[in-house]
Amino acid sequence: MAVPPIAPFGVHHVAVQCHDLPTMVRFYERVLRLRVERRWPSERPGEEGQDRSVWLRTGTTVIALESCEGLPQPPPWRSSAAGLHLVAFEIAWQNRAVWLDHLRHCGVDVAFESPWTIYVRDPEGNRVGLSHFPFGQDGQRAA
Fold first, then answer.
1. Each residue of 81-94: b (16+ CB within 10 Å) or e?
2. What whole-number distance in Å separates Cα of residue 128 and Cα of residue 97?
3. CA angle, 9 then 136 then 99, to 5°
4. What per-residue confidence (pLDDT) applies to 141?
């Protein structure tokens, strides 16, 4: 049986469990400039008027921020453990300096930079990249 390929749009969604959902939504919306597409209300008693999940859109992909009770356990920046390492969003290489200024303006520390990616942590310590790989600062495709 032939299995059809993954849709050409790529990743459908990435879900991130959040202890402090409102703070995380503010970061992804205001700092990373994603737009809120949908809010899912909590159905738990005593949580009327609160969100259970907020979907933010970037291109064809949704970042689903989902409320949870557990506390964040951010890994060290570099780890030998297997598992999800980071989520990297694509930026135009021409806008790298603008993004660096915007992050500074928002009080977000840059954890690391490579020639193609700016790395930060969201408010709960998840690693996030702003990447223009494989295009370098000169706009040329990387070797």
1. eeeeeebbbebebe
2. 17
3. 75
4. 66
Q: Which domain holds residue 46?
A: 11-70
143: nearest Cα among 125, 116, 123: 116
Q: What is the pLDDT of residues 21-57, one digit of tens each?
A: 999 999 999 999 999 999 998 877 777 778 999 999 9
Which stretches of 8-119 are DSSP H helices? 21-26, 96-105
Locate 47 and state its tokens.
């949580």
Return the sign of the alpha-carbon dihedral for residues 13, 19, 21, 24: negative
For residue 27, which amino acid is it?
F
- Asked if residue 95 and residue 48 are part of one domain, the reply reads no
**AA letter at 74:** P
Domain-located, residue 3? no
